[in-house]
Write a structure and sequence with these properties.
Strand order of the largest sheet: 11-10-9-12-13-14
Low-confidence stretches: 365-378, 380-387
Mean pLDDT: 90
Number of helices: 15
CATH class of the largest domain: Alpha Beta
Structural class: alpha/beta
Order of helices and strands: HEHEEHEHEEHEHEHEHEHEHEHEHEHHH
Number of domains: 2
Strand content: 5-15%
Length: 387
C-alpha cells in the first residue's frame, strides 16, 4: 500500500489541527499503511469496517450486502461518538457516507470534505443515485471542496453551498525555501508523478515523448508512481524508447524528483485539484496539463503553466512550445512558484479548516488557532477514487 495525494493531504490537515490544539480521532475502515502512519505519528485512531457508497461505472453492486455493511459501520461509529463525545464529525471524502449517517444519528455537526468530482460520470457514481446523495450532503453543517471545479460540480448536483479550501503541499517556510526556477536544460527532463492508472495518462506522456524525439528534440521522461506498469512497458517497447523513458515505480519522498526535473506533465482529465500540479508549481517548474477540472483551475495558460487537451499530440505540442520559448518557460515557472506559495501551503489550508470548525461551533469564537477544543475527525481514505 502507498500514501498518495489524498492520504498525504489528510495527514497535513491533522498535523495542522494538532499544532493548534485541536484533538482528533481518525476512524479508518481497515488496517494498512495509513493506519500505521497515523499511529506512528501519535494520532488517535479507531478501526471500523464500512463500505463506500459509490461504484465504478458498470461495476456490479450487491445493494443488500452493502446496506447491511453500512448499517454495521454506522452503529459502530455511533457507539464511538457517544464514548468520545466530539464537537464535530469531519468526513474526509465523498466516497463514504458512514460518518454523515453516524453524525446525524447522534445530532453532531457534520463537515464533508469533498476531494473527488464524483457522481457525474467521471470515474464512479453514487449507488443510491445522485439525488439521494445530495440530500444527505445538504444536511451537513459545512461542505468543503478542494477546488472551485469540485465546488461547481457538487453545487450543480444540489449539494448546497461549498467552501473552497485548496490542499496544502508543504509548510509555508518549506515552500519559501524551494529553489528558484532555472533555465531549461538539454536533454529536457520531463516528469510524470502519479499512481499508475489509465486515467492518469502515463501512456499519453510516453507517446508524446516519442513525437518529440521524432521531431528532433532531446528529451527524457521519468515516470514516478506505484501500480501496474505493463501498459507503460508495452508502449515503451512499441515505440523504442527504452533509452528515453524511465519507470521509477513508487517513491515516497519525491523532493529529489522535482528538483531534478525541468517540467512536469499532468495528463489526467479528471483531477479534482491536482496535487502533482501544485507541487510542481511550488518548485518553480512549468506544468503542461490537461485543460479540465482542477488542472485547468490551477494553471493560467502560458502564465503559470501550459494547458492542452491531454492527448499525445497536445502534450508534445505544449512541450515543444516551451522549448521554443525558454525565457517564457522560466517566467512561467517563477509565476507558478509565487502562486503556489500564496495558495497551496499547509498553513493556509489549516487556517481555513480551523475557520470552518469555528463556524460549526466546534472551536471557540476568537483565536481558534490556540484553542484546546476536542474536535474529532471521522476520516478515511480510499485511493481507488483519488488523485
Amino acid at each position: 500500500m502507498r500514501l498518495y495525494g489524498a492520504s498525504r493531504s489528510l495527514l497535513a490537515l491533522l498535523e495542522g489541527f494538532r499544532a493548534h490544539g485541536v484533538e482528533t480521532c481518525t476512524i479508518i475502515p481497515g488496517p494498512g499503511l495509513m493506519l500505521q502512519t497515523l499511529q506512528a505519528q501519535g494520532f488517535a485512531t479507531e478501526v471500523v469496517a464500512f463500505p463506500t457508497w459509490v461504484t465504478e461505472r458498470e461495476a456490479p453492486v450487491d445493494a443488500e450486502a452493502r446496506r447491511a455493511a453500512e448499517a454495521r459501520g454506522v452503529a459502530a461509529i455511533v457507539a464511538l461518538l457517544r464514548r468520545l463525545r466530539p464537537d464535530a464529525v469531519w468526513s474526509n471524502t465523498s466516497v463514504f457516507a458512514t460518518g454523515a449517517l453516524a453524525a446525524a444519528a447522534v445530532e453532531l455537526p457534520h463537515i464533508w470534505h469533498l476531494r473527488e468530482a464524483s457522481g457525474g460520470g467521471e470515474a464512479f457514481s453514487f449507488v443510491d443515485g445522485s439525488p439521494a446523495a445530495m440530500s444527505l450532503m445538504r444536511a451537513a453543517r459545512q461542505r468543503v471542496a478542494v477546488s472551485r471545479a469540485v465546488q461547481a460540480h457538487y453545487e450543480g448536483l444540489g449539494s448546497g453551498p461549498c467552501t473552497v479550501i485548496y490542499n496544502g503541499v508543504g509548510a509555508a517556510r518549506d515552500l519559501a525555501a524551494r529553489p528558484e526556477p532555472t533555465p531549461l536544460r538539454t536533454p529536457l527532463r520531463m516528469l510524470v508523478a502519479a499512481r499508475m492508472h489509465r486515467e492518469k495518462g502515463q501512456v499519453a506522456a510516453i507517446e508524446a515523448t516519442h513525437r518529440l524525439v521524432q521531431a528532433g528534440h532531446r528529451v527524457a521522461l521519468r515516470i514516478v508512481g506505484g501500480g501496474p506498469l505493463q501498459p507503460c512497458r508495452e508502449a515503451i517497447a512499441r515505440l523504442g524508447l527504452d533509452a528515453v523513458v524511465t519507470l521509477a515505480g513508487f517513491i515516497a519522498d519525491i523532493d529529489a524528483e522535482y528538483r531534478g526535473a525541468d517540467l512536469v506533465l499532468t495528463c489526467s482529465s479528471s483531477e479534482a485539484m491536482g496535487r502533482a500540479t501544485a507541487e510542481a508549481m511550488s518548485y518553480g517548474l512549468p506544468v503542461v496539463g490537461c485543460d479540465r477540472l482542477g488542472t485547468a483551475e490551477l494553471i493560467a495558460h502560458e502564465r503559470t503553466g501550459v494547458l492542452c487537451d491531454g492527448s499525445a499530440d497536445g502534450l508534445a505540442g505544449a512541450v515543444a512550445w516551451l522549448l521554443e520559448h525558454p525565457r517564457a518557460a522560466r517566467a512561467i515557472g517563477a509565476r507558478a512558484q509565487r502562486v503556489a506559495q500564496q495558495r497551496f501551503s499547509n498553513d493556509a489550508c489549516t487556517g481555513a479548516a480551523l475557520a470552518v470548525l469555528e463556524q460549526v461551533g466546534a472551536a471557540p469564537a476568537g483565536d481558534a488557532r490556540h484553542s484546546a477544543t476536542a474536535s474529532h475527525a471521522a476520516g478515511a481514505t480510499n485511493e481507488r477514487y483519488r488523485e
